[in-house]
Amino acid sequence: MPWSDHECKQKLEQSLKLLSKYEWLLDAYVLDFFLDDHWSKLPLEWQKHLADIPLEHLGELIQSGDKNRRLTWPQELVTLKQDLQELCISRTPEFHAEVGKTPLKCLLNLVYSSIAPQNSLTCPLLEHPKLRHMFTKRVKPKKHHEIRRMAEICALSNRQTPVDFVVDFGAGIGHLARILGYGFGLRVCCFEMQPDLNKQAGEIDAKLEAMASKHLPASERQHFQRPVHLTQRLKSDTQPAEFLSCIRDALQIGSEDFRFGIVGLHPCGNLGPTLMRMFLGCPQAKFLNFVGCCYQKMTTEATHPRDPVQGYPLSRFLSTHPRSQLSYEAREISCHATEVYHDRLMAGDYEHLRIHSLRAAAERIIVHEFPHLRHCALRNVKHSPGLTFHEYFQRAVQGTRFADLDSRTLSTEQTEEDLANWQRIVCFYTLRLMLAPLVESIILYDRCLFLMENDCEVRIEAIFEPRLSPRNHITRAVKLP
Description:
alpha/beta, 18 helices
């Protein structure tokens, strides 16, 4: 059921109160772990309990379903976990709550299953033996899962709130639009700023139509709607009249009498809030379906005080709230893959988790030699079996001013002590990750309330399997009569 205005405000108040208590933890940089002695900042009871804990036990902190009754935790951590379960929006999609028990098998079933959840419609064309590859060619399982679920939900939205067409923002090469247009017969206008992607999309559309003419009778192709690919960028200051003019020209619509829906699959940063404002600013827009991502890229009052609008907060309620601001570090951790990290902990796959400790040890060395240079960008280094700190450091600093550091600076007693405490970083990172869903929920509650303040009925729910697609919450809105 959709939330009420009161429920949203209550959740936000409680969430922000809890967040303020642990803000110090969320705002801590893991790469500063050794340099700023983050371990000493944890409550003493936490330090004692986590000092020698088997790392697989940490998984219980970041998954709501895990509960080993033989384990005991500090009471404050128990209370924190209970509060998070109460306040955070569920990350488990309704179609598969038991996926974590057999991840690989279940994930593959989700990707390729033709059974849609109750809150969506199925697309038979995706199962056609001669045509289904046109929808999946060069599409990774993650993307396939996302576009299929998104298309099924958008088709249901169109049935419940009929429109003349759908506008797909950030359409890329048209994977989602293709399912909507050819699979469900919806007219789609694709907004994509890169002309090369639009060109590729048109070529794939033409190939699909040629294949369909060979394998489907004309009667089964009557519903086909070729997407219209428009090279256009939607900016935060784009006005509704300008946007509507582009749509009318692209679709050759001569009047103002039309209805459309807005769709966005992982609009990055501020684009999600921009879609919401455009939805509210266009009387012809009747429904909105989007799944956001990259919250750390949203602008805020603190980061862009001169901008006329920001990506967060959006609601009137939070805009005047004294504790509403979320730091960059908090928004960044909210985008991490909690379930994947949990599975690695539970499977005993620890070695690759050491990469954080290598980076933190490198940071201490760099700042010792160059005190004015903190948080400098280094090369990304993937963990590999047997990777030594010396090997990591040389790869990470290649091409930077730190490449000429004397190798003797890498072999100090302090560095050896830091590297020996790598498990403490895993504990610390897990504690931060424990709070990540709370930050995302605050952002989603704010979006929900913003739409409700503007006379919309809103629901937010998990629609993707989070191990495939960590940003898995869809915001669905329709305007009230």
